[in-house]
């Protein structure tokens, strides 16, 4: 998409030199709300088969590589590769690195973005989306919103006001999990780049570079998993990457306005997410919640009832009807 990116073998300690992307770039082409429907009308998700032996081998090698090289590997290794992002710092660094990799071979397949617009993002986040579009015009951006609505007013009219307070898991499902699964299905996503890092703590402190999300049928690649928050910030500064203005006001991780707060000195990067609550994730990276389990059980029972009804109907058709007795006059 823009300036040339030098190709070098690198380790986690030795970063390959990356030139800034110029504005005149070429326009060349653990328990939350996860739930996957078994009876969706959308076609089945594509699968990439990786044995545990193969996965362990890949992670052992990728662990020592610089994120740029991990991204180069992912572009070659995984078909139907997308980047899922809420335009946090790590995702923005990933996007900038990808734009430079793309400049090496503009005719190669790019990596489109998936953005989940919950309709409750900060104004600063929407402003950032516009700046990202302008900075990386050759990158395709797919926006997915809660099903059937396109504004906050429509969301609250359809699903209720302050749903994020009255039914948090249901909100996560409607605003984030279902739209992401719909994106995976409609786009045919086989592999996805995420912005998760171990230094973010919580459930992320042991994630590998590559993992298989069997529930959602995709391979997840976490290219900056070994980087610290400071390394990410340094890259953003050194390469003039656009970022959310809230980061200059005490925020480190930005999500929905109703569940994001500034963090204090010395607090973890994601300490401002769902502050005062036990949860640390919204559900898109976790296993099924109680709500998701309820949906799955409801679907299973409906399928069983449908089979039972079909069996009874078929049995009735084959029951021999009694013949009327003829009475002699």
Automatic annotation (TrEMBL):
Quick one: signal sequence residues? none
Q: Which reaction does it catalyse?
A: [thioredoxin]-disulfide + sulfite + adenosine 3',5'-bisphosphate + 2 H(+) = [thioredoxin]-dithiol + 3'-phosphoadenylyl sulfate
Which intervals carry biased composition (Basic and acidic residues)?
Answer: 21-30, 269-281
Listed EC numbers: 1.8.4.8
**CDD domains from the entry?**
PAPS_reductase
**Molecular-function GO term, any one:** phosphoadenylyl-sulfate reductase (thioredoxin) activity
Where does it sit, as one GO cellular component term?
Answer: cytoplasm
Which domain of life does this protein belong to? Eukaryota
Q: In which pathway does it act?
A: Sulfur metabolism; hydrogen sulfide biosynthesis; sulfite from sulfate: step 3/3
GO biological-process terms attached to the record:
cysteine biosynthetic process; methionine biosynthetic process; sulfate assimilation, phosphoadenylyl sulfate reduction by phosphoadenylyl-sulfate reductase (thioredoxin)
Give the residue spans that cross the bilayer.
none
Which key words tag this protein in UniProt?
Amino-acid biosynthesis, Cysteine biosynthesis, Methionine biosynthesis, NADP, Oxidoreductase
Annotated Phosphoadenosine phosphosulphate reductase domain residues:
81-262
Q: Where is this region: Disordered?
A: 1-38, 257-281
Task: Return the InterPro entries for the record.
Answer: PAPS/APS_Rdtase, PAPS_reduct_dom, PAPS_reductase_CysH, Rossmann-like_a/b/a_fold
Q: Has keyword Amino-acid biosynthesis?
A: yes
Assigned protein family: Belongs to the PAPS reductase family. CysH subfamily.
What NCBIfam families does this protein map onto?
A: cysH, PAPS_reductase, PRK02090.1
What protein does this entry describe? phosphoadenylyl-sulfate reductase (thioredoxin)
């Amino acid at each position: 998409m823009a300036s040339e990116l030098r190709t070098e073998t690198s380790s986690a300690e030795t970063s390959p030199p990356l030139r800034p992307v110029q504005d005149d770039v070429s326009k060349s082409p653990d328990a939350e709300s996860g739930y996957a429907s078994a009876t969706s009308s959308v076609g089945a998700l594509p699968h990439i088969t990786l044995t545990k032996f193969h996965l362990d081998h890949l992670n052992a090698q990728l662990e020592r590589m610089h994120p740029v090289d991990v991204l180069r590997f992912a572009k070659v290794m995984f078909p139907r590769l997308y980047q899922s992002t809420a335009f946090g710092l790590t995702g923005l660094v990933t996007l900038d690195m990808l734009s430079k990799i793309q400049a090496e071979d503009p005719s190669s397949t790019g990596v489109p973005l998936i953005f989940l617009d919950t309709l409750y993002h900060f104004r600063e986040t929407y402003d950032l989306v516009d700046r990202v579009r302008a900075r990386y015009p050759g990158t395709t951006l797919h926006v997915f919103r809660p099903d059937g609505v396109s504004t906050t007013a429509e969301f609250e009219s359809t699903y209720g006001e302050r749903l994020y307070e009255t039914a948090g898991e249901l909100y996560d499902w409607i605003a984030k999990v279902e739209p992401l699964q719909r994106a995976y299905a409609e786009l045919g996503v086989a592999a996805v780049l995420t912005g998760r890092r171990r230094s973010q703590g919580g459930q992320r402190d042991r994630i590998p570079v590559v993992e298989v999300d069997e529930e959602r049928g995709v391979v997840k690649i976490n290219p900056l998993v070994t980087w610290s928050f400071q390394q990410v910030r340094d890259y953003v500064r050194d390469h003039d990457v656009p970022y959310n203005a809230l980061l200059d006001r005490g925020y480190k991780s930005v999500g929905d306005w109703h569940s994001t707060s500034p963090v204090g000195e010395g607090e973890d990067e994601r300490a401002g997410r769902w502050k005062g609550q036990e949860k640390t994730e919204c559900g898109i990276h976790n296993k099924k919640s109680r709500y998701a389990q309820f949906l799955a059980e409801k679907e299973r029972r409906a399928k069983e009832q449908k089979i039972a009804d079909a069996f009874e109907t078929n049995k009735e058709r084959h029951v021999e009807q009694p013949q009327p007795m003829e009475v002699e006059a």
